[in-house]
Amino acid sequence: MIQVGVNGYGTIGKRVADAVAAQPDMTLTGVAKTRPNYEAEAAIRKGYPLYAAIPERADLFHEAGIDLAGEVEDMVMTADVVVDTTPSGIGADNRDLYERYDTPAVFQGGEDADVADVSFNARSNYDLARDDDVETARVVSCNTTGLSRLLTPLIETYGVEKSRVTLVRRGGDPGQTSRGPINDILPDPVTVPSHHGPDVNTILPDVDIDTLGVKVPATLMHLHSVNVTLDASPSAEEVRELFGDEPRLFLVPEETGIDGTGKLKEFAMDTGRPRGDLWENCIWEESISMEGNDLYLFQSIHQESDVIPENIDAVRALLDWEDRGTSMATTDETLGVGL
Ligand code: NAD
Questions:
Q1: Residue 82: CB within 6 Å of ligand 1?
Q2: 36 CB within 6 A, ligand 1
């Protein structure tokens, strides 16, 4: 069994912890938290060992009546791999801690690419992280994950000449009460390209991609307006079939009447998905269109959850525990990925 510690128990960390606990070949060593808030309470109720992320704050947990299993160093020492899900920039600060105990680590997309030996997307470059010299991986951001999953089968099957993507981004996650905008539409950034295209190149170095970002008053999901110029001119039906073979791409059927991210999230909740999570890219089937070599489509990305299966696969890849196909299939089956 792989012992996995999760450092940082917020939006991504709590989902990674649940996913680790669901794997047949992993044990959750515990989760490290900075404060005894509602998420700490939920971790305790789930029976997850809780570690103090900042040792000087351990007393706050004791005062709140929460028993700690130890301090974050104890967790790092015990774990075979740590998944660092702290806020952007803090992962880089934690790197020394993981190196001190020779513990391989998985970082998140808010960190700069140089935080880790490789940037990771299971479908695109799983085998890079299996290399003996690779001790750390960065699971790229939710948007980069969604674009990498989409572009990889297109590159493999048709070749890609150029990609142009406008990312309509949610202002904040549902729990982020301080984020915005609350009544505006912002070019974000106003300069072109946005950072997303260069980030895709950390996974797919040869792909020619330009991205533009817009931020809107929404919390549910992101929406990408995608144009990919292919090296071939397949029919829209052939592209649909290609995507249909990819478990982490969900083609939203016309007959479901799902007209936006609101109904997508309703669908996820109605079908019993934990937290209403949508781990798959959600591509509107009807939007898939070909004009000559140009492919057009809309896809939505659930920012809080699409990177979760990737974190699980990154753990196996770093330890060279399983091949890509076996790891992705195990992750998908245990989580229920594939709508
Ligand atoms: P979050 O703020 O929801 O959670 C981070 C947690 O880490 C919080 O509970 C915070 O208290 C805790 N923390 C702060 N300092 C810490 C420390 N020193 N040690 C341990 N824990 C500490 O953030 P998030 O949304 O889960 O993002 C985590 C990472 O995942 C970031 O790199 C982010 O860019 C990336 N990411 C976020 C999303 C998203 O939409 N939320 C999507 C993909 C990737």
A1: no
A2: no
Question: Of all protein residues, whose CA lies closest to atom 32 belonging to ligand 1?
Answer: 110
CA 37, CA 25: separation in Å to the nearest integer?
A: 30
- DSSP β-ladder status, 249-252 and 281-284: parallel
**Looking at ligand 1, which residue's alpha carbon is closest to its atom 25?**
11
pLDDT for 339 = 75
Name the closest-CA residue to atom 1, ligand 1.
Answer: 10
Q: Ligand 1: does its nearest atom lie under 6 Å from the Cβ of 8?
A: yes
Could you tell me the distance, in angstroms and rounded to a whole number, from the CA of residue 86 to the centre of ligand 1?
Answer: 4
Q: Which atom of ligand 1 is nearest to the CA of 142?
A: 43
Closest CA to 309 of 123, 129, 180: 123
Question: What would the mean pLDDT of 212-228 be, rounded to a whole number?
Answer: 98
CATH fourth-level superfamily of 142-301? Dihydrodipicolinate Reductase; domain 2 (3.30.360.10)
**Beta-carbon neighbour count of residue 193 at 10 Å?**
15
**This model's pTM is above 0.95:** yes
Distance CA 4, CA 312 (A): 10
Is the CB of 87 inside a 6 Å radius of any atom of ligand 1?
yes
Q: How confident is the model over 271-283, as a mean pLDDT?
A: 97
The CATH 3.40.50.720 portion of the chain extends over 2-140+307-335
Secondary structure (3-state) at 107: strand
Fold of the domain spanning 2-140+307-335: Rossmann fold (3.40.50)
Average pLDDT over every residue of 172-181: 95
pLDDT mean over 317-323 = 98
Facing residues of 160 across strands?
230
CATH 3.30.360.10 intervals, the chain: 142-301
> Model confidence over 234-247: pLDDT tens digits?
999 999 999 999 99
Model confidence at 277, pLDDT cuts 50, 70, 90, reads very high
